[in-house]
Design a protein that fits this description.
The chain is mainly β. It has one domain (about 5-75). Helices cover about 0% and strands about 25% of the residues. It has no helices and 7 strands. It has strands at about 5, 25, 30, 40, 45, 50-55, 65-70. The strands form 3 sheets. The protein has a 3-stranded mixed sheet with strand order 1-2-7, with no helix packed on it.
């Protein structure tokens, strides 16, 4: 379906989404480097790159977030466990 893109945390729900959208993408300041994307044999895009600046200066979100309100729209292909090592 169509995603509604936002750049700040919101309290949207399936009932309050803009017309003709079915999910929400929170656009973050850091994204996986598109140069390192991987495509599976069946065409699924897996973003595998190191974090790079998304040039989205007006976003309050650090990373991309995806919210799907109807779980029937989800076909899970992979699951990641990520550990962040922050520098002071």
């Amino acid at each position: 379906g169509q995603m509604y893109e936002c750049y700040n945390a919101t309290s949207l729900s399936a009932e309050t989404l803009p017309t003709d959208t079915q999910s929400t993408k929170g656009c973050g300041q850091t994204i996986p480097d598109p140069k390192e994307n991987y495509y599976t044999d069946d065409g699924v895009l897996i973003p595998m790159g190191h974090g790079v600046n998304a040039n989205t200066q007006y976003s309050s979100l650090l990373y991309n977030e995806y919210i799907v309100y109807n779980t029937d729209q989800v076909k899970l292909k992979y699951l990641l466990r990520i550990e962040f090592n922050y520098k002071d």
